[in-house]
Amino acid sequence: MAASPLTRYPEGLLFPDDLMRAVRERFLQVEHDxxxxxxxxxxxxxxxxxxxxAVERMGQVDAVPDNTERIHEVARExxxxxxxxxxxxxxxxxxxxxxxxxxxxxSGAMFDMVRAVAENVPGxxxxxxxxxxxxxxxxxxxxxxxxxxELRVAPSNPATGGVDVDAIVRLVDGGTCLLxxxxxxxxxGAKLDMVQIVERARAVEPDLYIIVDAVQHAPxxxxxxxxxxxxxxNIAPYKFFGCRGSGLAWLSDRAAALPHHKLAGKAPDxxxxxxxxxxxxxxxxxxxxxxxxxxDASGVxxxxxxxxxxxxxxxxxxxxxxxxxxxxxxxxxxxxVPGLRAMEGVQVYLDHGDLARRDLIIAIGLxxxxxxxxxxxxxxxxxxxxxxxxxxxxxxRMLESFGLQGAVRVSxxxxxxxxxxxxxxxxxxxxxxxxxxxxxxxV
Length: 443
What we know:
Elements lengths: L4 H4 L8 H9 L14 E2 L10 H11 L10 H21 L5 E5 L2 H15 L4 E5 L4 H13 L3 E5 L10 H5 L6 E7 L11 H11 L4 E5 L18 E4 L11 E5 L1 H4 L21 H20 L10 H25 L13 E4 L12 E5 L4 H10 L2 E2 L1 E4 L6 H7 L3 E5 L7 H25 L1
Parallel strand pairs: 1-11, 3-4, 3-5, 5-6, 6-7
Antiparallel strand pairs: 2-8, 7-8, 9-10, 10-13, 12-13
Helix pairs in contact: 3-10, 4-10, 5-6, 10-11
């Protein structure tokens, strides 16, 4: 049996030139910002470049004034949009049954899911990791305190940038009611071994509820809830080539039936409060359509010959491989320019050598300046990156666990090209040289 492309290409596989052009054509502002200024947007872990089709579809659907909870033709059309989008979320996650929850933000959905379990499932403790986004960690901390439970926190591993499976599982026991874990770090890009985490944690406590924050990982790799059967998982379409103002979650049948905020007349497993916005579902369908198109364009199967999940899976595989190749080029460079690992004046933090265990995120430091100053220098040269500083509530806990005070987070997207990466590396060289020159001038 032939090896999977994911194992056959440990350094990744770039899109062919014609596919690269076609992918870039489907995104907004890849080369320029909304004012028309040339820009390299490498802060996709804080959002993402948008699909043209998603933005257009949002406007079309949101312009319709009709209420979905009516019986006329337009209302039924909007109901169909929602039903299709809900089905697409299940397809994206490879989930069966359960309930789809459309919230304003993924953070809000996370708080709601944690609350439902914490307030209604017996136990003496709750388990999470130090690398969680505040929406997960703070929710766990709040409801552990409110319900009088111990909060157990698994430490990070600075060598991998992630959290070891053993570090999580050793905290789980028969009294654990909830395990809440992030799919991939939004600082290091390290992917947690979700298959092993779920399997081993449930071996300790078979009835354990597990909730996963997939916001960071979902745009970069395939999620399969048949392989990792959890009770709740969230995504943010605005980080998945979509639009802001939407957070989507899926809950298992047993989690959806837990008491939660809802209108009394709605079904026990219904989670939306008020009228959902149909555009949220329409945008998700556009995201799915795009990834399926990418799967078709890979040439693995004739368009339409495979099912939607299979086409989506192939599309996500191509995204993963292209992004892995971009990651390799950022780290190791090319004949055109040295990579970050070899660049004088640059330190790559949390630099695990196995690229298969990483999403396309890099944390770096530049000699002579702190992360905030470095981000400013990049901005002056038309590059948008993000400062991960211990002064920020979104970064402090995670950075301190790694022994860092700050880092520049670099997060391209699959619609970026090797040329974009080389440009970033040249600009990084320029910044390091300019900072060194200024330091010598001062001396």
